[in-house]
Design brief:
Layout: H1 26-41, E1 46-48, E2 58-61, E3 74-84, E4 88-93, E5 103-108, E6 110-116, E7 122-128, H2 129-142, H3 153-172
The chain binds ligand K2U and zinc ion.
Ligand K2U binds at residues 44-48, 91, 93-97, 130, 133-134, 137-138, 141.
Amino acid sequence: MTLRPILIHPDPRLKKPCEPVTEITDEIRAAADDMLETMYDAPGVGLAAPQIGLLKRLFVMDCVKDPETKPRPMVLMNPEIIWASDDRKIYEEGCLSIPEQYAEVTRPSEVKVRWLGLDGALHEDHFVGLWATCAQHEMDHLDGKLFIDYLSPLKRQLITRKMEKLKRDRARG
Ligand code: K2U
Ligand code: ZN
């Protein structure tokens, strides 16, 4: 298990659509493992493969926040939304690739997702609440879409400028 560096916006790898997982290789298993470790360490409730520079359709998620409840680490490959509620919910989203920036995003409040599991089987689940928001946020990453793409051009540009400064300052060490 290795902590992987999380790419920071703007980065071309965060804007590219990712390739489907065609074979569950040891590399894919190792990436999923590292992504879960990196997500918990951040901390976050989700992490998509492009955020660690792997342009594959794979994300991990664990939205269990209550320390009394058993964690539910999930690895979803080639995920597809097969149903979304008409009902919408506004959530103040963040992103591990856009640190310390938050904005309201409106999304369907419930989604049904089908995906390929590490066991090689197809799975389906009905997500609500933070799980639904997170799954949609992660699936956007697989299409090269960031939550700031839902904001006005001005707001998006302000956030991008802040991230460019953050990267300059980090490069300076
Ligand atoms: O993809 C990511 O950058 C991980 C996000 C996933 C996420 C964003 C917005 C809403 C739900 C999930 C990280 O978990 S950001 C940290 C965080 C933690 C709890 C709630 C919201 C955001
Ligand atoms: Zn994100």
